[in-house]
Amino acid sequence: MKKMKYILLLLAMMLTLAACGKTATEEAEVPEETDVSEEANVLFGHFSSQTLEGEEVTEEIFANADLTMVNIWGTFCGPCIAEMPDLGELSLEYADKGFQIIGVLCDVMEPGDETALEIVEETKADYTHLIASEDLTMNVLQYVSSVPTTVFIDKDGYVVGEVYSGARDKTTWELIINQKLVEGQ
């Protein structure tokens, strides 16, 4: 019964995410965002999941950096995959600045998924990718209307600022990240 409930929840999420987000614009300006109301700016939530490689993870992963970029993506989503090489580069470039990137796979429920592992390897998106556990899915659903969707989280697990729907290019993400890092000081 619990498995059926989990499967139904994931099916509902996948239907919600059926359409991929828009692709990045050519101009390097900070795009419009969706404001997160004060009530929605709550703790990201307690969760337990696994990385794509099978390592156990909890909400404590956010304590590893002052600011975490959580990029929710799907193996079926072209714009998601297209922005991953840039995210991989940003992950390396900002690692020593109190910043980390975490990917959350919306359509993978088990570690070791061959398609997801292949995408990560081909795009050189060598940051941590979490699979869609039941409690992680429940927490993330409130922020996602399409993929990719990106949310910034502080080291205590709170949402910082806006929710970004759609893919962005490296220059645009750099502007957004730099702005958020300055605001956090």
Could you characterize what this model shows?
By secondary structure, the protein is an alpha/beta fold. It has 5 helices and 7 strands; from the N terminus they run H-E-E-E-H-E-H-E-H-E-E-H. It has a 5-stranded mixed sheet with strand order 5-4-3-6-7, covered by helices on one side. Strands 1-2 form a two-stranded antiparallel ribbon. Strand 4, helix 3 and strand 5 form a beta-alpha-beta unit. The longest helix is centred in the middle third of the chain and has 16 residues.
Describe what is shown at a glance.
With 185 residues, this protein is of the alpha/beta class. It has helices spanning 2-16, 78-93, 114-123, 134-140, 170-183; strands spanning 48-50, 56-58, 67-73, 99-105, 128-130, 149-154, 159-165. A five-stranded mixed sheet has the order 5-4-3-6-7, covered by helices on one side. A two-stranded antiparallel ribbon has the order 1-2.
Shape: globular
The proportion of residues forming helix, as a percent range, comes to 25-40%
Q: What proportion strand?
A: 15-25%
User: Order of strands side by side in the largest beta sheet?
Assistant: 5-4-3-6-7
End-to-end Cα distance = 47 Å
In N-to-C order, the SSE pattern is HEEEHEHEHEEH
For the sheet with most strands, the description reads: 5 strands, mixed
Radius of gyration: 15 Å
Overall pLDDT level: 81
Unreliable residue stretches: 2-40
Number of strands: 7
Strand-pairing-aware structural class: alpha/beta
Count of alpha/pi helices: 5
